[in-house]
Amino acid sequence: MMIVFTTYLLMLLHSPLIHAPGLRWIVALCRLAVSLPSLAPGTPSLRHIQIYEVRSTSNNEPHPSVLRFVEAWIGNSATAPLDVSLNLSQRETIPEDPIADEILSLIFTHQDRWRTYSLFANFELNEELDPFAVRCWDSVKSVSLCSPGLFVVLDLSSAVISNGIGAVQLQELNVLSWDMDWVFPAGRNTLHLPNLRKLSFNTNFSLDLGDSFTLLSACPNILRLDIDSRDPLAPTLKSGTALPILLPHLIEFRIMTSDEAVINHFLDTLTCPSLANCHLLSSAVGTPRNLRSISSFLCRGSVTHPRLACLVIRYESVNGVPFQLYHDCTLALRRLLGALKSLERLSLGGLILDEPVFNELTTRAITHDSRERTSGDDDLLCPLLSHFHSMATNKRISLQNDEFDIEE
What we know:
The chain is α/β, with parallel strands linked by helices. The chain is built from 9 helices and 20 strands. Strand 18 (387-391) and strand 19 (396-400) form a beta hairpin. Helix 2 (24-39) runs parallel beside helix 3, helix 3 packs parallel to helix 4 (98-108) and helix 6 (260-269) packs parallel to helix 7 (288-299). The chain starts with a strand and ends with a strand. Keywords: Signal.
């Protein structure tokens, strides 16, 4: 059973249509949900709560009813696993929110019962309180933290190699918070997250590139990876100091950076032979060095040619590619595309496309059909291409089969 708690529910609590005063009817509902499994086997227990707002819509004041409801919910859910989703936003008219502080404190005292946990908290915490620490308990399967302005500690010190006994069950980790601290095991090489399938994170002062590689080394079975490394003040890693990392099952990779060196570090370190979708977004200038790193990354670990089906490369620098690099960039791009025999979708931005490459790609996408590739296609650029989008400096196009538009 899921309880969704919103400001609308707050209004109902004191509505004349509800005869039971205060929260009695909600507490009764909680007790009923807890007793349902024993009364009717197969019915769910009360273990899922979503709180989207903690204020009354009438006067913008913090509403204590929410806290009483959460206390009743936790108290009446016995030891059942908890699925928690909190969206706590601060309004400009109220600088402090003691109710939100107390809700977080209450929820965090029971985190050993968490099964899934999602937090979006856009407000400043009471400075007298200690930072909230999220521990990686054996029972938790999903953690999502997005808390601008709220300092949170993610403690992974217990996620260590245990010879298959009591391995951490975490399957999804989504961390997009600039004000957050990471805690790793004392022995970095003992960090172990064998069940993790989806990972999203951003680098910051606490999680630099070296820590990022430590985290990735502990996740051999991830399927989807999303990295945001756009913070220009985040510490970097000296070239050549990271050991190679094999992610054999990764099928989707997305990275956003503001520095060419940062994206090159990741591309030069990771090996992803099963990659099918790749999105590379950067606010830097696309250089031949970067294109060569992309080519090596996509081909690394492949026996014949990469399995990649979708590729997005987008540079959004206001300066553009320097004229003296035009020739080298076009050669590097041709070599890159020449290896992608399984590519079906391609999007390019901020690069230079010479006329032969541009014409070949557009012709391929326009004439594409479902027939199998023949041996004569081996010398063609992207023989299976069916979708092509270009925001290149000199060539702009968006087409799908025979529907296209070209701007020069």
